[in-house]
Structures are given as C-alpha cells and as structure tokens.
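User: Teach me something about this protein's shape.
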Amino acid sequence: MEEKITIIKEILDDIRPYLNLEGGDIEFIKYEDNYLYVKLFGACSNCGYQDYTLNDNLLMLIKERIPDIEGVINVEI
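Assistant: First, the predicted structure itself:
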C-alpha cells in the first residue's frame, strides 16, 4: 500500500506544475479501496474540465503504474 501511495504522490508532483500554470493545484488526501481521493485548489476547484483532468488524464497516468486503481475522487473539504 505504501508503495502505491509513493507512486501516486510522484505522479501528482509531475502534474502539479501544469496545474499551477493554470492557477490551480492538487493535494493527495488518501488512497483507499482502490480509489484515490484528492483535493483540487484554486482555478482547478471550479473548472469545467475537472472530470477530464481527474478521470481521463490523472486516472490514465496512474493506471499505467497501478492497474487496479478504479477511480479518482475530488473531495470537497
């Protein structure tokens, strides 16, 4: 489990600069039951492309290294 979390955090660190360019950010919340929970900030928190960013881009990147991941959920905190 810790290895998967390390991989996820590395991937989030890789995409963070691209989100920052658009005025947004992403934070790891937890990985549980094959779901990644994140929190989007700034411009990303109310962007119309949230689902695309999380489910098409981020999920596909993670699936390349963690095939059993089932989804990415944005947590409203």
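Now, about its shape. The chain has a mean pLDDT of 92. The chain has two helices and three strands. If you'd like, I can walk through any region in more detail.
User: That's plenty for now, thanks!
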